[in-house]
């Protein structure tokens, strides 16, 4: 859903009674032009209780890259009345600067988001940019800032295994689906234990590994544990640590904090 809309008129009307001088811009380039040509000031934090990111939209903007929002975003909000702050929420500026010539300079844009577990919101758009202003677009998948092609291009096992960036790779796997990825990537069987099978496949990402008294670069594998539901006989694939050496170790890693004799209980249940 669109959480923030770029509506200049609504922003002007909301701020009209605050008594400031202010300007609205639609691109990061314009915002930076003010930074370079005007004398900008770093605003001190106002009342601490008013400075916190307390709303859905303010929390969303706190997740934008530093190069967009500049100084910690919520600071300027402590300089406006609470009634204006409430009216401004649907059209909240994405970033703000303060200069001696123009007063506040606000960057206006659109933000799409989704609600996650616990009631928190995160930038997300499954078929386009999640943050849009005149000269730039930012792509987000469930709160992760990723490249345009990661969101828009069709994911394949070949593309996933060639991707060196972990975040981009994780998003591609989510979009493709674990089961489809496992089937297409042809993972190798490493070990099995009580009907559970450890599967692995190497990626293009490299990591340092100490082996035989020497430090070498080795491919980082993706590891999955195949488990079978005893009731439905349906296969499920659980993501496990790539360092898991055998199926038993991988199974233990999925039972974090389990204090009983899990192996005894598991065998008894199956």
Question: Briefly, what is this?
Answer:
With 270 residues, the protein is an alpha+beta fold.
Task: Characterise this structure.
The chain starts with a strand and ends with a helix. It is elongated, with a radius of gyration of 25 Å. It has helices spanning 8-15, 28-37, 48-51, 56-61, 66-69, 82-88, 148-152, 157-162, 166-176, 178-185, 247-253, 262-269, and strands at residues 2-4, 22-25, 40-41, 95-99, 103-107, 110-115, 121-123, 131-133, 136-141, 144-146, 188-193, 196-211, 214-228, 235-240. It is of the alpha+beta class and 270 residues long. The chain contains twelve helices and 14 strands.
Measured distance between first and last alpha carbons: 44 Å
Integer-rounded radius of gyration:
25 Å
Strand content: 25-35%
- If helices are DSSP runs of H or I spanning 4 or more residues, what is the number of helices? 12
Query: How do the helices and strands follow one another from N- to C-terminus?
Result: EHEHEHHHHEEEEEEEHHHHEEEEHH
Query: Major sheet: size, sense and barrel closure?
Result: 6 strands, antiparallel
The number of strands is 14
Number of domains: 2
- Structural class by sheet pairing and helices: alpha+beta
Which percent range fits the helix content?
25-40%
Rounded mean pLDDT is 86
Oligomer: single chain
Regions with pLDDT < 50 over 5+ consecutive residues? 47-51
Shape: elongated
């Amino acid at each position: 859903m669109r959480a923030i809309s770029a509506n200049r008129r609504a922003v002007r009307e909301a701020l009209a009674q605050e008594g400031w001088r202010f300007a609205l811009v639609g691109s990061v380039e314009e915002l930076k032009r003010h930074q370079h040509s005007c004398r900008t000031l770093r605003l001190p934090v106002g009342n601490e209780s008013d400075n916190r990111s307390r709303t859905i939209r303010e929390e969303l903007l706190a997740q934008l890259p530093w190069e967009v929002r500049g100084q910690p975003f919520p600071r300027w909000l402590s300089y406006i009345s609470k009634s204006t702050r409430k009216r401004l929420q649907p059209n909240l500026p994405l970033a703000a600067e303060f200069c001696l010539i123009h007063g506040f300079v606000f960057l206006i844009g659109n933000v799409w988001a989704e609600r996650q577990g616990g009631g928190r919101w995160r930038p997300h758009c499954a078929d386009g940019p999640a943050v849009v202003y005149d000269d730039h677009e930012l792509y987000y998948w469930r709160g992760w800032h990723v490249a345009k092609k990661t969101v828009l291009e069709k994911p394949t096992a070949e593309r996933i295994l060639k991707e060196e960036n972990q975040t981009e790779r994780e998003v591609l796997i989510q979009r493709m689906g674990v089961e489809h990825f496992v089937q297409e990537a042809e993972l190798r069987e490493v070990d099995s234990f009580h009907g559970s099978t450890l599967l692995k496949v190497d990626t293009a990402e490299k990591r340092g590994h100490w082996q035989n008294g020497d430090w070498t670069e080795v491919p980082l594998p993706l590891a999955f544990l195949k488990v079978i539901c005893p009731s439905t006989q349906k296969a499920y694939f659980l993501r496990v640590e790539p360092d898991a050496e055998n199926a038993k170790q991988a199974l233990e890693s999925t039972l974090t904090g389990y204090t009983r004799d899990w192996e005894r209980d598991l065998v008894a249940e199956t």
